[in-house]
């Protein structure tokens, strides 16, 4: 019984540390870009997936123009966010 | 004096790779180039030192008082994998160049039995905190040393004239055998 408790608590604390560290050190801009991208993961931009595109956008902000499914309202939202940066 | 003997013991006499035969997978897998070997050795060093400290504290202050020493292996694996994750996150944020160079090798350490072996051996030998630290530094230096020497021998062997059938892994296995013979002579020095 106490063994189960120890393993569970230890795993919980370790995962807590990882989650907190990850959320603190994560690139906030990258997360926002990923949110604004359409999320089809089509790979038409050439970066493999939307998360690859978000990573690329941190280096080169104009990379979003390569996104084919980003149209209409979504495109306006993205340009809106980028102009505020 | 005792600390120096532990250091020498863990680097040479009881070398983790060549006398205990732990960590054979990275020993053969990442020793094709000197640079790869050094990257692997360096990342193993970070993880071994951190995890042996943490597991020592957990073993002494949680497992022994609650009489749950039988949980040792699973908890040590848990701690090692968590530390690998943490090191990866921190390196990615603060040292992206190092992270890019180590790249693939960092997650591989989770399954490196040299790390688990060092941690288990340290807790088997009833070392105290400083002795555990010295032992872990020594065995990771031993790992790095052996893997680096092995990689440089393999790089030289690529330009040597050897029988066609021995090229690649067969000659690497023979090299490892001769190195293990040499290291076995350290016993009793």
Summarize this entry quickly:
The complex is a heterodimer of chains A (85) and B (189). Chain A is 66% helix and 0% strand.
Q: Could you describe the 3D structure shown?
A:
The complex is a heterodimer of chains A (85) and B (189). By secondary structure, chain A is an all-alpha fold. Chain A has one domain. Helix content of chain A is 66%, strand content 0%. Chain A contains four helices and no strands. The mean pLDDT of chain A is 83. Chain B is mostly helical. Chain B has one domain (2-184). Chain B is 74% helix and 0% strand. In chain B, helix 4 packs across helix 5 (96-102) and helix 8 crosses helix 9 (169-184). The longest helix of chain B is centred in the N-terminal third of the chain and has 30 residues, at 34-63. Chain B is globular, with a radius of gyration of 17 Å. Chain B starts with a helix and ends in a 5-residue tail after the last helix. In chain B, 34% of the residues are buried. The model of chain B has no long low-confidence stretch (mean pLDDT 88). The A-B interface holds A 2-3, 6-7, 10-11, 14-15, 17-18, 21-22, 25 and B 58, 62-63, 66-68, 70-71, 74-75, 78-79, 82, 85-86, 89-90, 92-93.
Overall pLDDT of chain A: 83
Largest sheet of chain A: none
Q: How far is it from the N-terminal to the C-terminal residue of chain A, by CA?
A: 53 Å
The total of helices of chain A stands at 4
Radius of gyration of chain B, taken over Cα atoms and rounded to an integer in Å: 17 Å
Q: What profile does the largest beta sheet of chain B have?
A: none
Provide the domain count of chain B.
Answer: 1
Assembly form of the protein: heterodimer
Basic shape of chain B:
globular
Number of strands of chain B: 0
How many domains is the backbone of chain A divided into? 1
| Low-confidence runs of chain A | none
Which helices and strands appear, and what pairs or packs with what?
The complex is a heterodimer of chains A (85) and B (189).
Chain A: H1 2-25, H2 28-36, H3 50-59, H4 72-84
Helix pairs in contact in A: 2-3
Chain B: H1 2-13, H2 24-29, H3 34-63, H4 72-94, H5 96-102, H6 105-108, H7 113-124, H8 129-158, H9 169-184
Helix pairs in contact in B: 1-8, 3-4, 3-7, 3-8, 4-5, 4-7, 7-8, 8-9
């Amino acid at each position: 019984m106490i063994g189960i408790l120890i393993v569970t608590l230890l795993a919980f604390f370790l995962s807590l540390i990882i989650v907190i560290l990850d959320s603190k050190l994560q690139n906030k801009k990258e997360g926002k870009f990923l949110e604004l991208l359409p999320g089809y993961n089509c790979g038409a931009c050439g970066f493999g997936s939307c998360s690859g595109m978000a990573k690329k956008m941190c280096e080169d902000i104009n990379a979003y123009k390569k996104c084919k499914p980003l149209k209409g309202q979504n495109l306006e939202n993205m340009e809106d966010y980028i102009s505020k940066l | 004096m005792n600390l120096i003997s532990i250091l020498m013991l863990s680097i040479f006499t009881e070398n983790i790779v060549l006398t205990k035969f732990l960590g054979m997978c990275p020993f053969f897998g990442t020793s094709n180039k000197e640079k790869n070997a050094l990257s692997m050795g360096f990342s193993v060093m970070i993880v071994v030192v951190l995890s042996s400290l943490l597991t020592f504290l957990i073993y002494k202050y949680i497992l022994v008082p609650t009489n749950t020493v039988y949980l040792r292996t699973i908890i040590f694996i848990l701690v090692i994998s968590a530390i690998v994750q943490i090191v990866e996150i921190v390196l990615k944020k603060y040292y992206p160049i190092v992270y890019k160079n180590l790249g693939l090798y960092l997650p591989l350490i989770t399954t490196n039995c040299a790390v688990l072996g060092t941690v288990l051996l340290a807790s088997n030998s009833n070392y105290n905190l400083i002795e555990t630290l010295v032992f872990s530094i020594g065995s990771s230096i031993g790992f790095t040393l052996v893997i680096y020497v092995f990689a440089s021998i393999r790089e030289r062997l690529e330009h040597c004239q050897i029988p066609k059938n021995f090229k690649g892994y067969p000659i690497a296995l023979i090299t490892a055998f001769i190195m293990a013979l040499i290291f076995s002579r350290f016993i009793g020095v």
